[in-house]
Amino acid sequence: MTLFSRTGIVPVDATHSPAAAWQPLTHSRVTITGGLWAERQAINRAVSLRHGYRMLEQSGNFHDLRLAAGQAQGEFRGPLFMDSDMYKWLEAVGWELGSGPDAELQGMADEAIRLIAAAQTPEGYLNSYYQVVEPERRWANLEMGHELYCAGHLIQAAVAFARAVEDTRLLDVARRFADYIDATFRQAGRPGAPGHPEIEMALVELYRLTGTERYLQLARYFVDQRGHGLFGHGWPFNPTYFQDRVPVRETQVVEGHAVRQLYLTSGVTDLYLETGEQALWEVLARQWADMTTRKLYLTGGVGARYEGEAFGDVYELPNDRAYTETCAAIASILWNWRLLLAGRSAAYADLIERTLYNGFLSGVSLDGTGYFYINPLLSRGGITRPQWHGCACCPPNAMRLLASLGHYLATRSANGLQVHQYAPARIETALEQGGRVTLRMETDYPWDGAVQITVEEADGSPWTLALRVPGWCEGASLRVDGEAALSPQSEEGYLIVERAWQRGDVVRLDLPMAPRLTEAHPYVDATRGSVAIEYGPLVYCLEDADQAAGVSALDVEIDPRAPLRAVRRDDLLGGIVAVEAAGYATDTGPLAERLYAPYGTTAGLARRAVQLVAVPYALWANRGGGAMRVWIPAAQRR
Amino acid sequence: MTLFSRTGIVPVDATHSPAAAWQPLTHSRVTITGGLWAERQAINRAVSLRHGYRMLEQSGNFHDLRLAAGQAQGEFRGPLFMDSDMYKWLEAVGWELGSGPDAELQGMADEAIRLIAAAQTPEGYLNSYYQVVEPERRWANLEMGHELYCAGHLIQAAVAFARAVEDTRLLDVARRFADYIDATFRQAGRPGAPGHPEIEMALVELYRLTGTERYLQLARYFVDQRGHGLFGHGWPFNPTYFQDRVPVRETQVVEGHAVRQLYLTSGVTDLYLETGEQALWEVLARQWADMTTRKLYLTGGVGARYEGEAFGDVYELPNDRAYTETCAAIASILWNWRLLLAGRSAAYADLIERTLYNGFLSGVSLDGTGYFYINPLLSRGGITRPQWHGCACCPPNAMRLLASLGHYLATRSANGLQVHQYAPARIETALEQGGRVTLRMETDYPWDGAVQITVEEADGSPWTLALRVPGWCEGASLRVDGEAALSPQSEEGYLIVERAWQRGDVVRLDLPMAPRLTEAHPYVDATRGSVAIEYGPLVYCLEDADQAAGVSALDVEIDPRAPLRAVRRDDLLGGIVAVEAAGYATDTGPLAERLYAPYGTTAGLARRAVQLVAVPYALWANRGGGAMRVWIPAAQRR
Known about the structure:
2 copies of one chain form a homodimer. Chain A is of the alpha+beta class. Chain A contains 14 helices and 24 strands. At the A-B interface, helix 11, strand 15 and strand 21 of A face helix 11, strand 15 and strand 21 of B. Strand 15 of chain A pairs antiparallel with strand 21 of chain B.
């Protein structure tokens, strides 16, 4: 069994403890210095955050808060969770300001923060919709009101500003609101939980930041309340949609609204990390196994169904109607990050990688101003990224993830550093048993699997460096200072080197990359007889734009027995590695008016040999709305 | 091009006129005397109609009308369209009483009719929900209120009782209501149309029955109103859902809620039949082409999507999440029947046949007390027919179609008789240029393709007999009185014999039947690499129950190069022809935890040769909730 299968196993040891959890490099400095992600971050900072500001102004998010603050007149605009988009955008700005000052962004943030503070009521409540439109209905509709959801995003934005730039203005607002919520629910013993989970992980983080225990207790209170008949008694959504069908600790699967589900599992994992409650870990392990072995797209996307934006049944993974919301991909990354800390297995980092490079990145256009809400794996044409959405949860969510991407590269333990994602980067941190450490990582990843890590700062004490070997990779090798590593140990998918590290030490990791063909479980209807092209962490697709003249991606088959070729293409999509494959184009014209035909009809159609050109799925729909497919029918021998 | 493709072409001559339309045998007598449909009708009469009565009593439909009539106290029960279920059931009872008296059914009908009459308001309005729950909101919510929808079903029940047993009590109620609606909308120039079409075809039929022109005008009024911004401005449904996106005459496709769409096209076809308006016929032709070439399941089922119970995009035809509501299959039959009258092509009768024998019949259990709302083409297990539904539109709809099935067998023209569906039956009618005619049809259809038609009554004048050659059939032959027919003409899919028919003349039609394999258009993801078994008009499926010990239908492949064998199996499902095929069972155990794997993994799994046994799809889920599949992966040569 190759490592490839890692997303399909359950490496969770049900008896472990979070005492040994890996730690995020929270008080450290991780800077992505080049390559694909640095480019995406630069666009995010230079273009997307400003685009977001304009959209929040145009769509009414600022207006609604001005109404709440008594600074404007008029009608409330947009859906009732408008504030959350503002907070997510603000969180992204916070992280970006931490990466370096920017007067314009700072001015935008100041305007937003002042407005938010002004809108807060004297007792600490804050929600522009309920303050403006239905003041008498505060907390009356926990199911769909999104007040606690918005509060969670406020807290996360506040944490970002506090952590990134030590600006605590928003934190003061958030704490007052959190205190008010705690008094209203937990301390008053009032039943309730967020109809849309989010605040759970925010509260745990607020606890981590402030040390105030009641925030952790409130998170737990909300988790404990679920599954006791709170939600889903009216049309159109049922308790499953709200993860309220059974109590959290009795859950067997991932189900219902995908973002709600994975924000909840993220919060539950946070709770486990802080409490060590074994029952929670067992639930999470079951849910992760269910998701990764039966409900996961190859792109890392999750949530197959349009109706209810929900997880489907087992093996229900349509390509054309894949819902795979960008926010669900982000939620999966957030969850797997927490699982990685707790579970210390490359399986989780593998899934973060798969999701980042594919199902998440597809959500954002190359120019930073277009955003998919839905990320299908097959387009028959006509699909492009809108600038914004009526329900605009995804764009600012993508912005905050891109802005905070450095958080996900590495972790530390008492005596070691673990590198999970590869990108040109500088990592500065301190180890309990290793003192200050600075690493410089150089690589052309994801286009090439060579990774060089240079120790720029170390005090000579021994510590372990763990480098993830991606599940897709076979034949990884490691050399330290030019020599083959003295049989590096492999542990849970990491190559481990223990050493008294010195300034100037160089580690070279080779992760052989070659294009490969992947197939799905035969129970998946939509992928039967088809293969997908992958290369390194990237899932590829065929777009009309790259095929031979007059050939639609819809009409081709790939010869799965012919070799694939990786080709550097600086002319395409800002510079990529494309994959060329041998295949055929079939003239399906005779079938235009014929949905069903005797067996053998299609095989009898004229076909001609063509070269297929595949590009990374994440970059599709950046050149108009031509057809696109990830899964390519495998040509049969004729 | 074989006739097989007939559902995939558009035989509509855009310049024809309804003056030559075939006529239903409305004032005739068609009795199905044996075989599959007679059995289904007998169960429908003996079991289902009484089951329906009990369910209508238990679910509150009688109760709600009693509330409206002031004969009971309490709360309204069920959804606001409860009356429509009562009317559909009553329509079924009406047709059945026309087939022969039954004291118990007559008593049930009398109770319902008296109650309905008592509930009607003095001005003619009738809707238990709005009378009891929201009397001040009459006609205020045309979008979702279903008042006109319920009125349509009332009219159809009334027509059934008037036609079948010359009982006009309900017709008096229906006419008063229709007059009140006409005065409220058309005569008052009040904008509006039914949010759920249905009343259009009912009004045209009421016009046909009574000759009262204003009913036809009202139907036209409602059709004309659509597409001008009436519906779909609020969450969760958009104008497309309601067929209100564009005016009817500008429509290019079938879209939105499938039952709404096809009830509307049925009404529009009725309107065309009465008015001859060419623009309507052109719209219908476009919509029919769109449906049959891009949005139709092999079973005749339509409406791929759960969300909005709607037509999907082109080629969006998932098997597991096929919605294919039983009511949508019925709606398609209703529409194609009207198209058949107007278009006089076997293409429409072919689709009626396909839908009747497969996507419709699957909706009803063999014992007559279980009903599918949703008819998937793949079950991974656990799906069985409930006794009734919270939204119980399908069960009584199936009852009324089964009770009126004789209507769909044949039509007449001035100088001829057309037989569209084959079943043991007796057809008594009169031809303008042929006098009284009685035919006796004998056949073991759908298990065998031999059909014998004996002329039992004829006056010796010449007329033409047209017999449909189903699109699936090749090599049909016709003999009259033991001799090969004198080169019978073939016209629009019918074999035509013109003759001075005499009592005792015998026509023998041979429709060779052999099991066959069918494939779908390669643009359909869910069927790629798979084939379906068909035999005559029947689509087959694999159920766990019939496979070798320990073999799941989910784990098999068929050898598409091996011969298929039709086998009479009197021991199965009340007596059927099963189809045996050679195939393989694969041990997918090693993939249980592995959703994706390198290309070739599945082909490397152990497999063993097995005999596959397929049964008619319509009869699935009558032996528990085992797995079922229509589309079977075709084994590749290893």
